[in-house]
Design goal:
Helix content: over 70%
Bound molecules: adenosine-5'-triphosphate
Shape: flat
Number of helices: 4
InterPro entries: DAGK, DAGK_sf
Number of strands: 0
Largest sheet: none
Keywords: ATP-binding, Cell membrane, Kinase, Lipid biosynthesis, Lipid metabolism, Membrane, Nucleotide-binding, Phospholipid biosynthesis, Phospholipid metabolism, Transferase, Transmembrane, Transmembrane helix
Subcellular location: Cell membrane
Radius of gyration: 19 Å
GO molecular function: kinase activity
Protein name: Diacylglycerol kinase (ATP)
Order of helices and strands: HHHH
Oligomer: single chain
Structural class: mainly alpha
Strand content: under 5%
Amino acid sequence: MSADMGFRTAPAKQMGLRHLAGALSYSMGGLRRLMAETAFRHELLGAVAAMGGLALAGAGAGALVGQFVLLCGLFAFEAVNTAIELLVDRVSPEFSAFAQQAKDLGSFSVLAMIVANTAWAGLALWRALAG
Ligand SMILES: Nc1ncnc2c1ncn2[C@@H]1O[C@H](COP(=O)(O)OP(=O)(O)OP(=O)(O)O)[C@@H](O)[C@H]1O
């Protein structure tokens, strides 16, 4: 059986700090998988531009933290959307209304976060430059 097919045995359950270290390591695996997505790499570039632009414009700590939190939300939604796409492609490789709706809903969740990030960045930049 191949590891690529997802047939590996699940690791044994850990407790305490080992559980925390395991969870961190699984999350880093998710991040590595997310880096393979073009959309996520574009969002990372946008994140650097937004945080860098706000810092250069002299935005306050509140504006920077707000942007950071919204960017974390965007990355989280992108990760969940990618997971949905993987599951849908596995469950319904053929055309189906279920697959289309599931993917389009995931896609909309990412779009909503992009709009929220853009609105925050625009307002914070305007306030920093005007004030
Ligand atoms: N199995 C399917 N059945 C029906 N519609 C699908 C199916 N797979 C994808 N679609 C639809 O086709 C469109 C494009 O989907 P696709 O997954 O290719 O999006 P994408 O953003 O290009 O994906 P990727 O993240 O791979 O670049 C979407 O509207 C999606 O809902």
